[in-house]
């Protein structure tokens, strides 16, 4: 049983979008969980492992990050990761197609976990996926449908995005330090981590969320 379940497509999404929320929820006495729908096999390797070993390496990275974030429940499913962006060679054996977008059965897999874990809140990407990544968009759609009648959905959103911010978490120093440590575990995706730091440094210490059905802005958590 968990109180807050983060549902995302790839290992590392949990630390980017919700690392601070996971830490502060745990500090408040909530039980937390992370469910990734893929193992990120279409990401970069940066020469740190053979392409065919990337899913297992990213799973190990996820486990280390989850331990730092104090996660109580962790599971990584094996739905296919959408092919990488142009200019990045797909790993040998990577699935073709549109990744999660081609697998609506992921919705049922999420709902099965929700029935077993009974979270009060499901935290996931907003409908636009923040950056339009097809796996982000699909994960948001599946999580929203799966949570109907079971849990309250919360999106992690951009401060200036199409959905209004209803809750803003400003991380204390200890939480920021641990979030950075969690991000640093995703070594194969270091270029993505650095790009995020360059473009959105303020989102490292300030996380913004949209609680479905809420209005106005609250400084602090939704739980």
UniProtKB/TrEMBL annotation:
Pfam family, one: PIG-L
Gene3D superfamilies: LmbE-like
SUPFAM superfamilies, alphabetized: LmbE-like
InterPro entries (alphabetical): GlcNAc_PI_deacetylase-related (IPR003737), LmbE-like_dom_sf (IPR024078)
GO molecular function ontology, one term from the record: hydrolase activity, acting on carbon-nitrogen (but not peptide) bonds, in linear amides
Record protein name field: N-acetylglucosaminyl deacetylase, LmbE family
Organism encoding this protein: Thermus arciformis
């Amino acid at each position: 049983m968990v109180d807050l379940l983060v549902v995302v497509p790839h290992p590392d999404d949990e630390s980017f979008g919700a690392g601070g929320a996971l830490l502060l929820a745990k500090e408040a006495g909530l039980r937390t969980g992370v469910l990734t729908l893929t193992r990120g096999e279409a990401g970069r390797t940066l020469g740190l492992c053979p392409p065919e070993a990337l899913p297992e390496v990213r799973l190990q990275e996820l486990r280390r990050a989850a331990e730092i974030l104090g996660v109580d429940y962790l599971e990584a499913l094996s739905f296919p990761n959408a092919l990488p962006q142009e200019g990045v060679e797909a790993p040998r054996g990577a699935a073709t197609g549109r990744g999660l977008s081609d697998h609506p059965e992921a919705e049922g897999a999420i709902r099965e976990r929700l029935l077993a874990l009974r979270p009060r809140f499901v935290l996931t990407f907003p409908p636009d996926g923040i950056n339009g990544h097809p796996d982000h968009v699909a994960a948001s759609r599946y999580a929203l449908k799966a949570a109907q009648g079971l849990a309250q959905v919360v999106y992690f959103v951009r401060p200036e995005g199409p959905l209004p911010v209803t809750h803003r978490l400003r991380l204390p120093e200890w939480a920021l330090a641990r979030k950075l440590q969690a991000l640093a575990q995703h070594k194969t995706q270091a270029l993505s981590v650095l790009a995020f730091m360059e473009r959105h440094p303020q989102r490292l210490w300030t996380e913004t969320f949209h609680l479905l059905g809420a209005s106005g802005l609250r400084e602090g958590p939704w739980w």
